[in-house]
Amino acid sequence: MNEQNYSIVIKVKTNGILIFTPCIGSFNNSTAYFITMVITSICHIIETNREQQQYDITVKVVGNVSKGYYNNMKQWGVLADNSGMIRFTSWVNFNGADIEPNVWYEIHNARYRYNNFTPNLILDSQTSATKLHSDEVIEELDPIEFDYNLPYQIVRVRGICLRINPHAYPNIKQKGWIGNAEQFEMPFTMFNSGGHTSLEVGKIYDIQYASVEYFHDKRELYVDCAQISEIPPQDYSIDSISPFFEIDHSVTNAQSKRIFPHIYSTAQSICGLSPEMIEEKVQLPLIAARMNYEQMMIIDYTNRTNQLAYMFGYFPYYIELIREVFSFIPKGDLDRIIRQGLKVNFYGCGPTPELLGFIRFISEKYPGINQIQATFIDGNSWHPWRSCVINNISKEYWNGKIVPTEVEDDLLNLPSSHLELIADADIHCIQNVCSDLMKRVATERVVNWLTSIYRTSKTNSLMAVIDIHYSSIRTLLFDPTVERIKNIHNDAKIFTSTSFRQANLDFVPSMIDLPTKRQSNGYRYMAIIKNRGD
């Protein structure tokens, strides 16, 4: 083959900026070559994912630079180029001058390392950082909004401060929750060393360059490295932000005083135990149930002792959940559904604490309703406790009449003879059922089940789904279900919200000694109103 001259384009990627350089070369080939040289960029480091390797990189400091929140940490913040963003941490043995915001640096021998599943560029005794006088612009990076599918991100969040949580950490200034109209909800942490002014509940903020990090297997928004500015309410629509509920534990404690005598009485008749023996027998299964709260464990609730542990350790908590759901649905929408002759289905309800929360809501908001038809679709092992709730405890909450129907069947495989029960109901309550089903079957099957209930239900009916605030509940269950229902009826009214509460067991009898008192995962709610038929 004869040697020929060809025009070659050498493409150089430097910090995400593409430079095209024409040149002439001699090659023994019939086609032009395309030669790529890669100079280190943030995207390259993260994609290579070689922990402890050292890199040379040119980057700009964006957002705020915070003092370290540990004694051996000097500073931390966010570095960016046009390929991406990454958190940096400088340690006390870093010999360079303090890193300044909004400045370009040429950094040599920075180590790449994970901390709490978070990628970091580490500046230590081997690292040098030289200021550059550069006016290079960082282009808009996409995506910068939060993505639930990514484990670690630098994000921008515009939203309302929903709540401030009490805490006892000396190095932390604030812990709370941020949410926005796109149903983004996440806890945030602000350290004392960041220099930011505390956020205020009800105010709207634009938070740029916050880092989403994992701590104790939960996502948190660290805002010290962010730029935080308040947004006037008129400049940001918050009409679709769901309320964020504070839990009044005095209500739960007051409830417990009313219901525990009934629980003791029923336990004596079911188990044949004295009150002292009940308290002794329930301690170990109650501790096991509480410790398994976050572990997605399967507990055998056909066992009478485990049932008793549930009645002491969980039942009082689960009363208020359904009431909270109905509290954030506009009354105009509920008025079309809640009326005389109301029919309510409770799925996988066990001893049905949700019945009590529902009738409490009815007694407060719809005092003219004096009777409901309630269908309980679940296994029969809870029947004695369910009877206690329907016939005895419910009288502590409502003076109306409950007309019960109990159906024992597999929730996911209801026979066609029971479809009429779904089609005839005004309200479908599905509380703390889906996470339990997801332990046993593929999530897709649970999504299909929820969608089928919606399809079968009548016009002007409501489906309320409540479950523990696991990330999988939102991303694998709620989101696909909402998408399918919108494809069926794009005018379905859909409401979502989240409630967080302390696992404060003050209402448990004092002789039951529990090992821990800790924050619960909280609960996520989804209410869907069917506005028209097929």
Descriptive report:
- This protein starts with a strand and ends with a strand.
- It is built from 13 helices and 22 strands.
- The chain has a seven-stranded mixed sheet, sandwiched between helices. It has a five-stranded mixed β-barrel with strand order 4-5-6-8-7. It has a five-stranded mixed β-barrel with strand order 10-11-12-14-13.
- It has 534 residues and is of the alpha/beta class.
- β1 (4-14) and β2 form a beta hairpin.
- 26% of the residues lie in helices and 34% in strands.
- Mean pLDDT is 79; it is low at 1-38, 238-249 and 502-519.
Structural class: alpha/beta
How far apart, in Å, are the first and last alpha carbons? 71 Å
Number of distinct beta strands:
22
Largest sheet: 7 strands, mixed
Overall body shape:
elongated
Strand content: 25-35%
- Overall pLDDT, averaged? 79
- Amount of helix: 25-40%
Runs in which pLDDT lies below 50 for 5 or more consecutive residues are 1-38, 238-249, 502-519
Which oligomerization state do the chains in this entry correspond to?
single chain
Features:
five-stranded mixed β-barrel; seven-stranded mixed β-sheet; 13 helices; disordered N terminus; 534 residues; 22 strands; 34% strand; alpha/beta
